């Protein structure tokens, strides 16, 4: 697997990830997937350049592709970015004294009954006003993982069950 820091170091790839993230969180998008053509139009760069960078992102596990005829639709996969987030969190919270003030009270309130990603987010909030934003991000990430798992399960069901049955029925079984 490629070094994620090297993959996201490229500005064009970060721009592509931003377009995909915007589509993922958009209420207007049912799947969160974006066509290559839409990315070309949005970013104003050539199709070969977009495709080259999408391949790097796909190889790094940061995006998934859905084929529909001759069209390719890409969506963001945030799970690999969690490793970077986990690495960054201690640096981002280095100036925060969690034991003092509202940050410590919130961390104590969060306790062991909270899921680990939400607890980590709560423990590293420098400003209590950021609680909603941080929790919203954790919830959106959990929703994305659940949606991706459902998509993968549906694809596997189609591939392993539905398609073989269709083929057998097509042969007059």
From TrEMBL:
Keyword DNA-binding: yes
Keywords: DNA-binding, Transcription, Transcription regulation
One GO MF term: DNA-binding transcription factor activity
Pfam short name (any one): HTH_20
Domain HTH arsR-type per the UniProt entry, residue ranges: 1-96
Origin superkingdom: Bacteria
Protein name: DNA-binding transcriptional ArsR family regulator
Organism: Frigoribacterium faeni
Lineage: Bacteria, Bacillati, Actinomycetota, Actinomycetes, Micrococcales
